[in-house]
Design brief:
Rossmann fold; 16 helices; 6-stranded parallel beta sheet; 15 strands; alpha/beta
């Protein structure tokens, strides 16, 4: 503890693909700083500095890597061998942990880190700094049961969860999806699991929302349809299907009146794909952005949202009770598809299997939400957003226990 009695919380996020990990970690960090705490986030995200972060939250940027396949990662920008860069990342992570001496070490999603890069750090904490509580945070759904069990067995994840972590937080609702059963988690590991509920996101003010609309030239009485694909590295098929749907509708004279469209492709879309999207969007009168620093305000400005099925994006949308349509990816993992089926089955959103998407079907679903989205808004009033409260409560309980 420092002289002002701040906790020290270290969060690790490997961040090799997309924006979901860093945005989830920031949401948790913003909540935990009230504990009070200083929160340091270890991240490989190139965009960490582009998000607004309040006092007592800072980043240690480790060199970035990009996922090529589920098992292959390459340096994002540096001309080094992957093994060299991994060794650099590993040493930065260990040195940061030893210097910071955290009270809590929270690991996002990857129990061993990227290519086992945090294993040495976890063993150091276990042997040399036992006062630190190690916590693994998992999203609601990892992948299909078969794939997850195979992956966790092969990589020794069950043993790592048993030996290297004090607690496991699942950022979801057991009644929606039960990973203990689905992933055959042994009882000694299951006893460490706490279901927190979903992690609510910042709710922008009406002034923030109006400012976002005004900045994009969206009129006071215009309705807004927003398409977002998160980081954008795998979102082009959804953007392409969306543009095709509106191309067809325009040809049939069926575009809705007084309605604007904003497409946020995500910063990781390829240059070639982005130029194609830009050209097609311009012909339709759509606004196209790669990145928006205040996505919460843009989401709040929209009447309907079309997205993929990533955890982070769906939490941001549901936090503001916006009617939304999920068009999930199905490779390399099925978690988005499963999440879409679960949430749609409970009446929180609409869902289109990407293997069954046609321009007509996609346009009809968007139009239906634009005119009849109230049922979804009412249902989302009951979405289980207890995550931040439960997380903060667990941190404070352990703090009180240590003080006594």
């Amino acid at each position: 503890m420092t002289s002002v009695d701040y906790l020290k919380i270290l969060i690790y996020s490997h961040d090799t693909y997309g924006l979901g990990h860093i945005r989830r970690c920031l949401a948790i960090a913003r909540s935990l700083r009230k504990s009070p705490a200083n929160v340091l986030i270890l991240t490989g995200s190139l965009l960490a500095g582009r998000f607004k972060s309040p006092s007592r939250i800072d980043f240690v940027r480790i060199p970035g890597m990009i996922k090529v396949t589920n098992e292959q990662y390459l340096p994002l920008s540096m001309k080094l061998e992957a093994t060299e860069l991994l060794e650099i990342r590993k040493k930065i992570i260990l040195a940061t942990t030893q210097a910071f001496e955290p009270d809590f070490f929270i690991v996002d999603k990857a129990p061993l880190g990227l290519k086992r890069e945090i294993v040495e750090t976890l063993y150091w904490l276990r042997s040399e700094f036992r006062s630190c509580r190690t916590i693994l945070g998992l999203r609601d759904i990892m992948d299909s049961a078969e794939s997850t069990i195979e992956d966790w067995t092969e990589k020794g994840i069950y043993d790592a969860m048993d030996q290297l972590y004090d607690e496991i937080w699942v950022y979801g609702c057991r009644e929606f999806y039960d990973p203990i059963t689905e992933y055959a988690i042994p009882s000694q590991v299951a006893s460490k699991i706490h279901f927190t509920g979903y992690i609510q996101r910042k709710i922008p003010t009406q002034e923030d929302i109006q400012s976002a609309r005004k900045a994009l030239g969206i009129g006071e009485h215009d309705r807004l349809i927003l398409l977002t694909t998160g980081g954008g590295g795998d979102g082009h098929p959804v953007v392409n299907a969306f543009l095709s749907a509106f191309d067809r509708a325009r040809a049939r004279g069926k575009l809705p009146h007084h309605t604007r469209v904003v497409i946020v492709t995500g910063p990781f879309i390829s240059t070639k794909d982005y130029q194609e999207v830009l050209s097609r969007s311009k012909a339709l009168g759509f606004i196209t952005l790669k990145f928006h620093r205040f996505m919460e305000a843009l989401i709040g400005a929209a009447q309907v949202i079309v997205s993929m099925g990533g955890y982070n994006t769906l939490c941001e949308i549901a936090s503001q009770k916006r009617p939304f349509l999920i068009v999930p990816r199905t490779v390399p993992r099925e978690e988005q598809l499963i999440r879409a089926q679960v949430l749609c089955g409970r009446g929180f959103c609409d869902f289109l299997d990407p293997r069954e998407v046609t321009p007509e079907r996609l346009f009809d679903r968007v139009l239906s939400l634009l005119h009849n989205g109230s049922a979804f808004r009412e249902r989302m009033a009951h979405f289980p957003f207890t995550g931040l409260d439960v997380i903060q409560r667990r941190i404070l309980e352990h703090r009180k226990g240590n003080q006594s």
